[in-house]
Specification:
Blueprint (H helix, E strand, L loop, with lengths): L23 H15 L21 H33 L4 H24 L23
């Protein structure tokens, strides 16, 4: 059933499919289902033992500890970024001697406070480094 093109300025009214014909959303849902089915991971070779599924621990205590570790990681990342920026400014000669002293003392105090928080919760600063897979670690190694 081809309808003639509308005259300029007229709007085409959408035609309804005949009863029993698949609806556009049904066709889209079927296509998505087929795509997901095709995208499933290929089976592993027979000689490889399957990896155990990673289980999420969702008990109250582990969630709190993971959140704390994430917050400490973000604070450490920011501390390192601020420290690098401060070193750039010192190298460029943008700071007075007093500003350099104050900035150095502040960064050392922040480092000590973060180390104390980590120790209080059983972490080291190295424990805060996240593995980003192919991108490598989040935090550079401390020298």
């Amino acid at each position: 059933m081809n309808e003639p093109d509308p005259a300029p300025g007229e709007r085409r009214t959408p035609s309804r499919p005949p009863p029993g014909a698949p609806q556009p959303l049904d066709r889209a849902g079927t296509a998505l289902n087929d795509a997901f089915r095709l995208l499933q991971a290929p089976p592993s070779p027979a000689d490889d033992s399957p990896r155990p599924a990673r289980r999420l621990r969702t008990d109250h205590e582990s969630v709190e500890e993971d959140l704390l570790k994430l917050v400490l990681t973000v604070v450490e990342l920011l501390r390192q970024l601020i420290e690098r920026q401060a070193l750039r400014r010192v190298d460029a000669g943008d700071l007075t001697d007093d500003q350099e002293e104050e900035l150095g003392a502040t960064l050392m105090a922040l480092h000590d406070a973060l180390s104390d928080l980590c120790a209080e919760h059983g972490y080291t600063l190295q424990d805060l480094n996240l593995d980003l897979g192919p991108l490598g670690p989040l935090l550079p190694r401390a020298d």
